[in-house]
Known about the structure:
Layout: H1 4-11, H2 17-43, H3 47-73, E1 86-87, E2 90-91, H4 98-106, H5 109-135, H6 144-173
Antiparallel strand pairs: 1-2
Helix pairs in contact: 2-3, 2-5, 4-5, 5-6
Amino acid sequence: MITATRAVDLSRVQHTAADVRFMQGMIGHHAQALDMTALVPTRSSREDMQMFALRIKLSQEDEIKMMEDWLEVRGEEIPGVRDHHESGGTLMPGMLTAKEINRLREATGAVFDRLFLESMIKHHEGALIMVDELLSTAGAGQETIIAAFASDVVADQRAEMDRMSAMLIAMLKE
Length: 174
């Protein structure tokens, strides 16, 4: 249980530069997931893939809006969703390379389904790395909204990774 004094202390926690970088970077990271899910309707005939991709799409869109709002309220720069596919000249954790994206775009059917799931698992692993990097930065990840979002990212990404792994195993048995 949180005491009244602790609640007041928590309400005074301010965001950090690392929090801002995390939110800005995660917008671009989510944008690539949207690019990937946009391929599913024309490349997969599996209903489970269609539904799963839609779920990812809707959650990522909602989270992008939340991150943009968080940045705006704090007077921080809101990157375009296409601005952060790269971070400092290198890909952010879990981001697919142009070659990997092209392979995914060119695939169809069962090959696409397998590549999509493998690629999205890699992408989700990258989001977990981004959270770990945030939380390992002194003072970062303490603001209430950031702490809750980081926790949600970890829980959601792990659950989706478990689901995608199960889908891959089921496909191998078909």
